[in-house]
Amino acid sequence: MAGAMTRAMILAAGRGERLRPYTDHLPKPLLEVGGKPLIVRHLESLAAAGVREVIINIGHLGDLIVERLGHQWRGLRIIYSDERSGRLETGGALIRALPQLGDAPFLLVNGDICTDFPWDSLLQPSLASVYLVLVPNPSHHPAGDFALNAGMVALQGEERHTYAGIARINPALLRGYPEQSAPLAPWLRQWIAAGVVEGTLYQGIWTDVGTPERWQVAQEICRVRQDGI
């Protein structure tokens, strides 16, 4: 499985309403942290881990992402999944991109996070249909999303953690869903309830860039490891 897992998808179609006015003229994944756009940081670390093809969904100001990255980037092949006519949310975005994602498990990452997560750890063989990365709850999300129980993600538990926007998914799970606007969270809860989701708690560098204040936090946190992410 590890050898076949060479694709990743970066979610980059969001409007970034809470980051206006910055996102009125620039898509959120092109916001810079430590002198590099967030999405470039992802491409660098994914390529270093062995990923060879990246699917990027584009929506708001998506032309700027295409202009910035092109279709070949330092050995990576980039394919764009077009949502400029209407954003599909994460679930719908995955269904639209299924023809490009292929049959092997793929990595999934939100385009608006800054992290030093070691991607190669998700390229290891696993029988789990889904693998989620969780992080300690940030101050803006104190209740968390899911718990961990002996390596399996659980809906309930004494200690809950926040979904990091990092996952590995077997595309076979997605077949049969219609292509329409749909969030991913309800599907995750279904899969967790079915017992097919493994996970881990990552306690390294991670922050999401959802507001101007959190963008500043990312600048302060991520530049500590500027050469490593």
What report would you give on this structure?
- The chain is of the alpha/beta class and 229 residues long.
- The chain is 23% helix and 28% strand.
- It has helices spanning 38-49, 62-69, 89-101, 185-193, 212-222, and strands at residues 7-12, 32-33, 36-37, 53-58, 72-73, 76-82, 106-110, 113-115, 130-135, 146-149, 152-154, 160-169, 197-201, 206-208.
- The strands form three sheets. Strands 1, 4, 5, 6, 7, 9, 10, 11, 12 and 13 form a ten-stranded mixed beta sheet that branches. It has a two-stranded antiparallel sheet with strand order 2-3.
- The longest helix has 13 residues, at 89-101.
- It is globular, with a radius of gyration of 16 Å.
- The two termini are 25 Å apart.
- The mean pLDDT is 86.
Helix run count? 5
User: How much helicity do the residues have?
Assistant: 10-25%
Distance between the termini: 25 Å
- Please state the structural category: alpha/beta
Biggest beta sheet summary: 10 strands, mixed
Low-confidence stretches: none
N-to-C SSE string, H for helix and E for strand = EEEHEHEEHEEEEEEHEEH
Gyration radius, in Å: 16 Å
Task: Please indicate the percent range of residues in DSSP E strands (runs of 2 or more).
Answer: 25-35%
What's the overall geometry? Answer: globular
Oligomer: single chain
Question: What's the count of strands?
Answer: 14
**What is the overall pLDDT average?**
86
InterPro entries: GlmU-like, NTP_transferase_dom, Nucleotide-diphossugar_trans
Protein name: Nucleotidyltransferase family protein
Keywords: Nucleotidyltransferase, Transferase
Organism: Acidithiobacillus sulfurivorans
